[in-house]
Structure prediction request, 603 residues.
Amino acid sequence: MSDRAIARLAARRWRIALALTAAMLAVYFGFILLVAFAKPVMGSPVAGKLTLGILLGVLVIVSAWLLTWIYVRWANRHYDVALRGLSGPGA
Amino acid sequence: MSSALGQPHPVAIGFFFVFIAVTLGITWWAARRTRTTSHFYAAGRTITGFQNGLALAGDYMSAASFLGIAGLVSLSGFDGLIYSTGWLVGWPVVLFLIAEPLRNLGKYTFADVVAYRMRQRPVRICAAVGTLATVVFYLIAQMVGAGNLIRLMFGLPYEVAVVGVGVVMLAYVLFGGMIATTWVQIVKAVLLLSGALILTLLVLARFGFNPVALFSAAADRYGAAVLTPGQLVSNPWDAVSLGLALMFGTAGLPHILMRFYTVPDARAARASVFYATGFIGFFYLLTFVLGFGAMVIVGQDAIRAVDRGGNMAALLLAEVLGGTPFLGFIAAVAFATILAVVAGLTLSGAAALSHDLWVNVVRDGEAGEHEQFRVARLATVVLGALAIGLGITFKGQNVAFMVGLAFAIAASANFPALFLSMFWRGFSTAGAVASMTTGTVTAVVLIYLSPTLQIDVLHHPAALFPLRNPGLITLPLSFLAGALASVVWPDSVSAERFAEVERRALFGVVGE
Prediction:
């Protein structure tokens, strides 16, 4: 196994990891900034008296689940296969 | 309303003793399997991904977040949701950036990873200081919380409660090491999740299993304001700064990082964060519903009458919906929660003292297995005694800020060095030392100068530093110090060994 191929796979994993981290940052701080700067919008009702703010807060939690699921799915399907390819049979 | 809270009730005491008996039984079983240092620190690396996911959740979901967030929601509504989300969003970051390479590169502590290609001594000392600072501040908050809670729940004197928690926790860690700690955390996570779930279902049953009806009832009784953002985020910079500390602090908490060494490989480490994120997110959703349930069913006046901060809201709700026996069960669960968290903290502090400082600094990595095992247990006793001593010293003090401080130190002292050591070829010994020292010192100094300490605790009229949590300043400063020092004082050995780090981060080492 060549160091070049390993460095390429490592770089690919970091790119995906950093992109997903940036997505989580954007979702969470997007929510916080809405809470800080758009209080009336966050207080507007969407179903019964349930407000948009509460719905978005719950969606922050759901998006954390979704992002971890995306990563695990990619890692199990592609990354692990590429790892096995690099380490060769039996290793 | 009259409540059985604060009086020693036979049902609560019964559940409490069953829990102590079961966990001490686990400890006895674990003690017979704890024969080497690897068993003691890392449970022999035999925990599965699913089990570790539960144990991570058990390590992380504290009584403060269960009772505190439910209480905050019950009194202020929407604002509690800001905390619920904030405590969760660090977990995906742990998965993406830390879990797998950490598992492959280290042995027992996160310092193993930072020091891997560096000069051991200076890096280990700084990492141990960062670890101990995080652990001590977190422990103080947990022990003081434990003393207050147990006094409120069972009517026991504060000191008795602190010593009791300390001694039982010490028994788990000292005799059963990581195996017992892991299983106590798993039992606790299952109890806490099922207790919170049952309570939530009892709440929702009153509203036709329709959460919207619950929120509407809250708005009818206390006004639409409880469903909209309130006063918590009056300064957006404060919210962003706290958010950064929570997000990257989770990825720098020593007791959380240590848990990744208990699984056999990186794949299991990955799976364990996936499960942990699921459990912890679910738990925070439940506490949010419980807070609104307490607001509507118990009522804000009744909650404030028992504890002004609202910390007893979930327990009062349990009493109203399930009677005294259910109150006893939930109180015992809250107690189990405290024990599991302090056990994890103590073990990670002991690992910093014995594995990082004694074995790798004092003995230069030359200590034999027998000596390592003995020093690990000695360090556990030291940490346990320290926890009890600190708990009693800080009696009656306002220590709520210490959790925020622990997260700020973890985010600024531990996370940047850990991340850069795995990610950047040019990161040098001087860079690691600069980054960790800057992070620890600036986090402690800026918290001291912040309104959190100057105004809330010391009652001064103003504070020199405007932010309540320093994460927004200290996290970038720590990265900057690490980068600058690495450029000014490069380290050729460290750079040459980066290819080895990259290879090992991917493949790990068989059998370790």
Q: What stands out?
A: Chain B has a mean pLDDT of 91. Chain B has one domain: 10-396. The CA atoms of residues 447 and 453 of chain B lie 7 Å apart.
